[in-house]
Amino acid sequence: MNTAHVQLSPEARASLPRHVAIIMDGNGRWARQRGLPRIEGHRHGAESARVVVRAAGELGIQYLTLYAFSVENWNRPKEEVDALMKYLLQYLKTETAELQRHNVRLHVIGQIYRLPEAVQTQLQKTVRLLSKNNGLTLIMALSYGGRTEIVEAARSLARKVKAGELDPDDIDEHLFAQHLWTRNIPDPDLLIRTSGEMRVSNFLLWQISYAELVVTPVLWPDFRKAHFYAALEEYARRHRRFGTV
Ligand code: IPE
Ligand code: IPE
Ligand code: MG
Questions:
Q1: Residue 79: which pLDDT band, with cuts at 50, 70 and 90?
Q2: Ligand 2 mean position to 70 CA, how many Å?
Q3: Ligand 1 near 203 CB (within 6 A)
Q4: What is the C-alpha to C-alpha distance for residues 236 and 11, in angstroms, rounded to an integer?
Q5: Catalytic-labelled residue, pool 73, 133, 187, 202
Q6: What's the rounded Cα separation, in Å, for the pair 237 and 140?
Q7: What is the pLDDT of residues 98-154, one digit of tens each?
Q8: pTM score of the predicted model
Q9: pLDDT tens digits along 201-229
């Protein structure tokens, strides 16, 4: 796909999603196709993230969630996990200035406490530095699991009930959502998955109940603005019904 002069149609501009979530998949296959170690795919994937963050910000999309590391991904070989953490740290260090320039705010969801100390420290630093920005909110899902998130929400509600602070009858969808890591963030309108896999892999299970799904065969390290725009065009053509007629 020629990515030099990629344009978004007026129709797609008029019906942009407020929140786009992306399952960035296919790094390992990208590397294997080139006879490279899997981690080379992860290294190249950082550029795709850069491109998408910039494109989303330019369009005025309000929220972009990137699934960078799942709770299940801890089960990968140690060398791969270490490399992923290394590239994550590198990304945060090299991108903070660029994110600042583009008025991006950063929010992190997941079991942050499981991440290496250096990553946690850098995340805190970057989040703080970008906290006054009011452009795109970039949400990084790190050591994230949808089921874990739901269980943690249930646990914190149960604690409040036990402490006598909450009546179980007052638990409704809104209150439940307020106990998720994504509290105060609107649900994704569009969920993109790269590399052709037709599954959600424990991503935002609660939040994607009415998201539009777009799966592209493009492997994440190859994902560029043109592919992002193609997903937005596809989204604009969808007719969302939310269960109504
Ligand atoms: C996505 O690419 C990156 C992470 C899950 C961290 P993969 O590493 O899953 O690549 P494939 O799916 O094996 O090609
Ligand atoms: C989903 O990709 C997790 C991330 C993109 C971070 P995986 O490659 O881990 O998912 P499966 O194993 O194909 O379901
Ligand atoms: Mg994968």
A1: very high
A2: 7
A3: no
A4: 7
A5: 73
A6: 27
A7: 999 999 999 999 999 999 999 999 999 999 999 999 999 999 999 999 999 999 999
A8: 0.97
A9: 999 999 999 999 999 999 999 999 999 99
Distance 55 CA to ligand 1 centre (A): 22
Per cent of the chain over pLDDT 90 is 98
Question: Is residue 73 annotated as a catalytic residue, yes or no?
Answer: yes
Among the bound ligands, name the one nearest to the CA of residue 84. Answer: 1
Residues, CB within 5 angstroms of ligand 3 (ion): 25
Residue 198 has pLDDT above 80, yes or no: yes
Q: In this structure, what are the phi and psi dihedrals at residue 54, rounded to the nearest 5 degrees?
A: -65, -45
**Cα 172 from chain centre:** 26
Pocket test for ligand 1, best of 34, 195, 203 (most atoms within 8 A of CB): 195
Could you tell me how many residues make up the chain?
Answer: 245
Is residue 134 flagged as an active site residue?
no
Cβ-based neighbours of 198, under 8 Å, separated by 6 or more: 215
Is there an atom of ligand 1 within 6 Å of 195 CB?
Answer: yes
Question: What's the CA gap between 181 and 189, in Å, rounded?
Answer: 18
Q: Which of 25, 27, 189, 222 is catalytic?
A: 25
20-57 pLDDT, tens digit per residue, is 999 999 999 999 999 999 999 999 999 999 999 999 99
Class for the domain spanning 15-145+187-237: alpha beta
Parse the chain into domains and list their residue ranges: 15-145+187-237
Q: Tell me if 142 CB under 6 Å of ligand 2.
A: no
Q: How many CB atoms lie within 10 A of CB 198?
A: 7
| CA nearest neighbour of 223 among 12, 41, 36, 33 | 41
